[in-house]
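User: Batch of two.

Assistant: Item 1 of 2:
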Amino acid sequence: MSAISPQTMAVLAGRMGEGVLRQRLAMESEQVSHHYRHVEDFLHPEHLPSAGRLIHRVLTAVGLRERGRSNARRIRVGRNPVRLGRLPPAFEGCTLLHLSDLHLDVGRHYVDALVATVRGLACDACVLTGDYRFGIQGSCAPAIAALARLVPVLPKPVFAVLGNHDGIALVEGLEDLGVRVLMNERTALERGSARLHIAGIDDAHYFRTHDIARARDGLAPDACAILLSHTPEPYRLAAAHGFDLMLSGHTHGGQICLPGGIPLLTDSRAPRRVARGPWHCDRMQGFTSVGCGCSIIDARFHCPPEVTVHVLHGA
């Protein structure tokens, strides 16, 4: 568990809710000790250290280890047009650069590839949907050092949420770099008198410290609002709360897939129809990034890493 000062804890409790903060800190302690209260928490792939070693040995044995590593560094730039019925006219054509599942501390060559991919991309804002470090325990310092290389080349402003790999100490590290971390709270982009609201929730996959109602509280029913969530799992709740667009990641699109991009595993309780790319639920549009990094092992097959430019249009 990352140590935080009483002053920082008081600030975070006010932002995300005291109860969910204490829950997150307790579950971070479980990750460090590997003493999980629930079987389902123990069975997450990232909590099984032998999983990465086994995959590494299999890929090495069949001669695919280096190809998988090379695939993981070939990061694509995707473009996703989105039509939002309540988008203020002032935001017609607004562009959001979306990065998810960065897992930055996996190695210098990967960070070099990601920086080269996003450098010079002209967008109106950038959103990060969690998982900044490769492991789930230990110091956040290597991930923050890699973020210090990446953040300066991202379009500004930058908004972010935490994922299931991220210790709470990353909030301070990200915000020291000028990134606005949304912990069950919201902010807005402004153009004249028009506003495009951006809300963010804490991780709903492992920590389960998301509070969509808190993030939406006080917002007018007809306001156009985007929700950032590390995982698409709470998509039905997000739609019920009237969000217009939900941006997420976590699934990696499967990362290691069969030909045709068929995932072997998405590590998500959400249905596969929302596990990658664009989707919708009732009136809410959604997009789940396949991620620009890797988890468990730095390899990809039939699922190229990507960053996405979302282009917003009115209905």
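Item 2 of 2:
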Amino acid sequence: MMLQIDTANKLLKDVVEDSLAFSATARKGVLLLEDGTRFEGLSFGYEQATAGEVVFCTGMVGYPEALTDPSYTGEILTMTYPIIGNYGVPDARRWEGDRIHAAGLIVSNYIPTPSHFESTMDLSTWLKREKIPALEIKDTRLLTQHIRKHGTMLAKIVFDEDIPFHNPYADNLVARVSTSEVREYGSGETTIALIDCGAKHNIIRSLVARGVRVVEVPWDYDLFADDRPFDFDGILVSNGPGNPKVAEKTIQTLRAAMEHEIPIMGICLGHQLLALAAGGDTYKLKFGHRSQNQPCLLAGEKRCYITTQNHGFAVGTVPEGFEPWFINANDNTNEGMRHRSLPFFSVQFHPESTPGPMDTEWLFDLFLEKVYEAKGALI
């Protein structure tokens, strides 16, 4: 017992000493908000200015998955959990994208001494390798309260040289993160076309694990072209960044799919795109939902699911023929919809989780049931 206590005390001493050494040598930087608010901090990432929209995530874990989630493209991510970097960076097979997509990172306490058996490097090394700025700002609580009060806003991390603010929603972020080629995963007699608007890797893993073939296509791919080199039985439209109304070609594809009554499942941005394709409408939330602890109620029931979320827009008008399916228990915003008679449904949250709870993973099974029914196959 005494040996264990001594070992723990030594580890704690090492962590404190390394943190003090980091604080003494780190370069200073500033987070500037478009309303003039200023936060000074210490750099532990790539020391080059960056601009985007500042947002916050209330998850306690999952910073590697969040940073590599394409939905964070153009956003300076603030982690509200006070200790970040403590378990390092896992192998790329654990990431949700092929690289870091967030424009920058803000934390309260950066831990330069990670401890985890799967860690391949410390967070600072990874950020510098991928040229992502990051600041340790002690009062992230004040920053988060400011965002909640005034809404998400443009921001920039600067060092010696200033740069202009940049509105990421002026860009087609979906086109930036989508695959540029057709890719295949898994095998099976059933094929799902995955429209990649910035898909998290675990969407593909979740489908392949259920014995289907997944064909990932670009956001603007014509699934109904005569020269299409593959057939498909259902469509899953993925998560992704930015304003859904910019992805007009994806919306057109979904309209054609509904005309053919092909089973459709939408996730996050895909939920918003399906709503727009069916005649509904979307709007920008004040500060969005980003965490692994968002409660969602099954519409008309008392059952609540805990979900992973990352979005700044929401469905404001559920289209004709659809019914609300899930409701956010915090602010009553729409979290899902399903068609009253046809095999179309979508959810605002992430049933593939990673990070986060797996409460709603059953939605993939429901989707494939719809696909098999449409094929006339036995379930």
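The CA atoms of residues 176 and 198 lie 9 Å apart.
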